[in-house]
Specification:
429 residues; 16 strands; alpha+beta; homodimer; eight-stranded mixed β-sheet; 33% helix; 12 helices; five-stranded mixed barrel
Chain lengths: 429, 429
């Protein structure tokens, strides 16, 4: 018989259900099992005297074994689980589980060692449904707005933006590096006349960071588009994209996220508030007494980043905040600068965490080359500078971290918000 | 003025257009330019005496420079390009192009060196639109069929399936490897109870192959799903997926593909034909006199693979062919085998090229462990075998190469069908 999802069971009609055994009480005359599939849970009730062959199977079962059961579901007001239970006619053991190597109070390292068991919760299943919905909605929005999807190489011949924090590998008789972002190749697509592109794919950072939000490999969602007239166009695109995706997430999973993670999904109002970095510091000092060391005023400090959640909420009633006018010294050489040398880009902060850097890019070869040289970048970016010598439209774009978005939607630390976390000390399973 | 796509221009109404200069004839009294955007081409006509300031700008222009032009488009039956031309009122030079470093007859290596210029053709733009459509349609189909998207790590701690053909890298104080496929982690998601997942992402192969279809990095599209009863379920899923995606491609781009690439898009009939490997060899011998060396009968040889295009067409009137019953010796240890030791999997051939390997997987720990040991795999797959000790549903899946699909849809060799090809001697740009 074809398998039925637990949520689709019609009481009174015979059906077949498959799933993991979540609970097992094997008593003298009765056995009660709870089986779990991706849609829900169901109690199985075996009267052992009436069904000795099933009783024999039940005696071999263990928690988290996988079974397929056929029977009829009846309503029974004494059953806690939705007031119904299945009286099985047959039970097939698909997979026998050994005694679990971790309990519900295992620490994070043990949980990551056995991540595939750790993932078997309603919360974790929901988390990846939500991520799927979020990313799917972003792709849909972009496809409807004339973007093409590209896949840029992760194996690159030069050490990318700076040479620091980059993984090096043996590539036949030479060295290669892992791309720290698709930045250079997104821009290559602009020089190729693609006009609007996006990419989702892995991004590699050889950073020895041990925080709640850093990882050595994560999923980036990047886009780039041509014929913009200022970085305001880029911020608008990002507002539109995130608002669209968050609406979809709220609509499909808003209640469930609130129930399981205790966090509301808030569809942001447009336009998102915008502040210059210097004004952010002035307000943080005035409102919360935060004093930024003078040497760090050109960039947003980690403490200030956290405080902007409160600022955005109290000043604008908003969860998002665009911060602009960083110091050129702290920004990538490829950000366009205005006549006063101010980078034409921004960071976007959501719930006190930076989720994006975006900018209009410098597309004029001579200026770009000069900006690279000022940062001491030579040979490593030479291949990239070539993209701008033979015609390239003005353009801009941004990149989002998919795992950070998931982390912020669920309120979980990064290790819990990824399918499999990677850090300096974590490369398995 | 907001930019208008060339395809959306309404003659008689002033508009602004941006694009690359594809053609430039600067005569004594008149200048004719052709500007190209992502939607089409437009002639600009400058009467130099009437517009001396525009004439001065035109004198500075070069082929492939990027300009923004404002003016009114008029109909003119003498103009070849759609019978219309723009009389510009203003021209802004967005980016000045140097003399192009390659001509239209450049060889493939030069073209790849300057890939961003090489990509600036209607064919190449179309190719990535088509790929976007194909992959987007596959994702949509899967989302509608309860699949979630996951992102599995590309940095792994053990040398994956065999240790051969794997890239090794320095990971802080130890070694790491680049994933040759998401296979093990897709299956981990099954052990985690995700039931149905897909992933699109890069796949790395350290193969020193120099063919028209191999590359060291490509985009994989992989899926895996639980509670199947045989690999027939996997083949059906793949038929449904490909038929859906090809219908969409045909509908949106079929005519354009036929026009530019000379290839029809054929939406396949279901079910796709299925043949056992031994029967394929028997028919190839009988029909085309192909004799396979006895030592290679357990797998499909490259010559036989090519010939199956003809076989599928002449025997079944079909472009696709599922081939089953390979020898266990030639198949991965994780393919389930029947009681006679026959692997429960298949290859799918399209137009004479293998595009997929699929199978029901062995989910029973003891049998899987034995099959790994028989292949001499020990330490490297130990982490993977753990996934099956604590309960795992029966499952199966397959993987597709996105670039190979694109190659077959367009009839181009792999180097031309990727955004940026990577091979043993090719790591730039």
């Amino acid at each position: 018989m074809k398998r039925t999802y637990i949520k689709d069971i019609v009481p009174g009609t015979p059906c077949t259900v498959s799933g993991f055994i979540e609970n097992l009480r094997n008593k003298r005359t009765m056995a009660f099992l709870v089986v779990r599939d991706v849609t829900g849970k169901l109690q199985l009730t075996v009267e052992k005297e009436k069904a000795p062959e099933l009783a024999a199977i039940v005696d071999t079962l263990t928690l988290e074994s996988v079974i397929t059961v056929t029977g009829t579901v009846i309503e029974n007001e004494y059953v806690k689980l939705g007031g119904r239970e299945m009286i099985p006619e047959s039970i097939t053991v698909e997979s026998h589980a050994e005694a679990l190597p971790l309990g519900p109070d295992a620490n994070i390292d043990t949980r990551l060692d056995y991540r595939w068991i750790d993932l078997r919760t309603e919360k974790n299943l929901l988390m990846f449904r939500v991520q799927t919905c979020f990313v799917g909605a972003m792709r849909q929005y972009l496809l409807e707005n004339n973007f093409s999807e590209i896949h840029t190489p992760k194996l690159i011949g030069a050490a990318s933006e700076s040479g620091a924090d980059v993984f090096e590998l043996k590539y036949f008789d030479r060295k290669a590096y892992l791309a720290q972002s698709p930045q250079f190749y997104k821009q290559m697509a602009m020089a190729a006349g693609f006009e609007r592109i996006f990419e989702s794919g892995p991004v590699f950072r050889a950073e020895k960071s041990f925080t709640n939000k850093h990882t050595t490999e994560f999923t980036g969602f990047d886009l780039e588009f041509s014929y913009i007239t200022s970085f305001e166009d880029v911020m608008q695109m990002e507002e539109d994209l995130l608002t669209y995706a968050l609406s979809r997430v709220k609509q499909e999973y808003g209640e469930k996220i609130e129930e399981l993670f205790g966090l509301p999904v808030i569809v942001p109002e447009k336009p998102f508030p915008r502040m210059k970095l210097a004004d952010v510091y002035a307000e943080l000092r005035e409102r919360y007494g935060y004093e930024c060391p003078a040497s760090e005023m050109g960039d947003l400090t980690t403490d200030a980043e956290r405080l902007t959640a409160r600022l955005a909420k109290e000043k604008f009633g908003h969860e998002f905040l665009f911060i602009t006018d960083y110091s050129a010294e702290k920004r990538a050489f490829y950000h366009m600068r205005d006549e006063n040398g101010v980078p034409q880009g921004y960071d976007l902060i959501w719930r006190g965490v930076e989720i994006t850097t975006g900018a209009q890019r410098e597309h004029r070869y001579e200026i770009l080359k000069k900006q690279a040289e000022e940062k001491g970048l030579g040979e490593d970016v030479r291949f990239y500078l070539e993209f701008f010598r033979y015609g390239c439209p003005p353009h801009g774009g941004f990149g989002l971290g998919v795992d950070r978005l998931t982390m912020l939607l669920t309120g979980l630390p990064i290790k819990d918000a990824m399918f499999l976390f990677r850090g300096p000390n974590r490369l398995n399973p």
